[in-house]
């Protein structure tokens, strides 16, 4: 039964890392990573049963540190990558590693979300994506249409292309590039385009968005001052190969045509209210189930009308595109 009502799941710890399980296209599944300084951190595997509108979960222990970013293999449902904090010589580095979840969790076995006595499972470390010479890792992004053997990590001002070999048990640094310029330049986020045979990656650093060719690790476009403040995130349109969206601390969402980046194609700067008949380009709906800062929102890889959002207090909310709008688009 389809229902527009949100479904809420609460984690015990604070959290800001969220991802759909990309290789899972049948079941609706999200992974959430926690941030606790006192206790062992966890990855919650959230299965959403849309027929009955309920959530089931499994818990994985992530004992190496607070999780700042999480991503999943596009080819193997059991493989994921995390970026996590690790103390090193009186400072804290953000490291990255590739993991495998237990085999019994891959098909979708689960426990009740209110079963506090459930046993947490252990992750198997496959390999590290660390090179301390490159600094702290902001995120890891997988080649979206590949076999799960290529990932890019962004560490301080370095973009690093890794080949995962021996069933992801070894990571070989294939090539890299660096940001050049004044000041302490750092990447904040990046996305691998699902188009162009997997040869393009977009990155954000401060207020600038850049495009890279993964074959030569050279810059192919640069959007300086893409936003008035820090660029927080970006993503490609999966259906239109040249279109890229970005959002920033200036509270704007901008859409770009990467063939001509002189001006954005569209800029959205909306208020918290919306009309009964929204404009063609504008706010469709506002969701207000969160009480703390929302750090992540991701679409399901199995249902294009469903998404999850995560706030820092550990509240995960699963919502749908309004049913009336969905049928208006489809019919």
TrEMBL record:
Function statement: Acts as a component of endosomal retrieval machinery that is involved in protein transport from early endosomes to either recycling endosomes or the trans-Golgi network. Mediates the recruitment of Golgi-associated retrograde protein (GARP) complex to the trans-Golgi network and controls early endosome-to-Golgi transport of internalized protein. Promotes the recycling of internalized transferrin receptor (TFRC) to the plasma membrane through interaction with endosome-associated recycling protein (EARP) complex.
Keyword Manganese listed: no
PANTHER family from the UniProt entry: EARP AND GARP COMPLEX-INTERACTING PROTEIN 1, WD-REPEAT PROTEIN
Official protein name in the record: EARP and GARP complex-interacting protein 1
Residue span(s) of domain EIPR1-like beta-propeller: 7-276
Placement of WD repeats on the sequence: 224-260
Superkingdom of origin organism: Eukaryota
Protein species of origin: Callorhinus ursinus
Quaternary context: Interacts with two multisubunit tethering complexes: EARP composed of VPS50, VPS51, VPS52 and VPS53 subunits and GARP complex composed of VPS51, VPS52, VPS53 and VPS54 subunits. Interacts with SNAP29.
Biological-process GO terms, alphabetical: protein ubiquitination; regulation of cellular localization; regulation of transport
Listed InterPro entries: Beta-prop_EIPR1-like (IPR059104), EIPR1 (IPR040323), WD40/YVTN_repeat-like_dom_sf (IPR015943), WD40_repeat_CS (IPR019775), WD40_repeat_dom_sf (IPR036322), WD40_rpt (IPR001680)
Gene3D superfamilies: YVTN repeat-like/Quinoprotein amine dehydrogenase
Higher taxonomy: Eukaryota, Metazoa, Chordata, Craniata, Vertebrata
Similarity remark: Belongs to the WD repeat EIPR1 family.
Keywords, comma-separated and alphabetical: Repeat, WD repeat
């Amino acid at each position: 039964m389809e229902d527009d009502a949100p479904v809420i799941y609460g984690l015990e710890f604070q959290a800001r890392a969220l991802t759909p399980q990309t290789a899972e296209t049948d079941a609706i599944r999200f992974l959430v990573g926690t941030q606790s300084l006192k206790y062992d951190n966890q990855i919650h595997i959230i299965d959403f049963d849309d027929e009955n509108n309920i959530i089931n979960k499994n818990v994985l222990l992530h004992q190496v540190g607070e999780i700042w970013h999480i991503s999943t293999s596009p080819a193997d449902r059991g493989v994921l990558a995390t970026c996590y904090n690790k103390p090193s010589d009186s400072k804290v580095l953000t490291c990255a590693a590739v993991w495998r979840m237990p085999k019994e969790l891959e098909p979708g076995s689960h426990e009740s979300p209110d079963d506090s006595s459930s046993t947490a499972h252990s992750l198997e470390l496959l390999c590290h994506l660390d090179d301390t010479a490159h600094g702290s890792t902001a995120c890891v992004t997988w080649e979206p249409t590949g076999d799960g053997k290529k990932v890019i990590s962004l560490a301080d001002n370095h973009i690093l292309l890794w080949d995962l070999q021996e069933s992801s048990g070894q990571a070989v640094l294939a090539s890299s590039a660096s940001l050049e310029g004044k000041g302490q330049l750092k990447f904040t986020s990046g996305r691998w385009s699902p188009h162009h045979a997997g040869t393009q990656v977009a990155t954000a650093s401060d207020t600038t968005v850049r495009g890279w060719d993964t074959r030569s690790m050279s810059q192919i476009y640069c959007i300086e001052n893409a936003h008035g403040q820090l660029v927080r995130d970006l993503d490609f349109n999966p259906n239109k190969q040249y279109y890229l969206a970005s959002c920033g601390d200036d509270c704007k969402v901008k859409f770009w045509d990467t063939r001509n980046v002189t001006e954005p194609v569209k800029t959205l700067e909306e208020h918290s209210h919306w009309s009964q008949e929204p404009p063609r380009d504008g706010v469709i709906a506002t969701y207000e189930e969160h009480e703390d800062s929302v750090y992540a929102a991701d679409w399901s890889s199995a249902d294009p009308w469903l998404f999850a959002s995560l706030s820092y207090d550990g509240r995960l909310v699963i919502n749908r595109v309004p049913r009336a709008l969905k049928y208006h688009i489809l019919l």
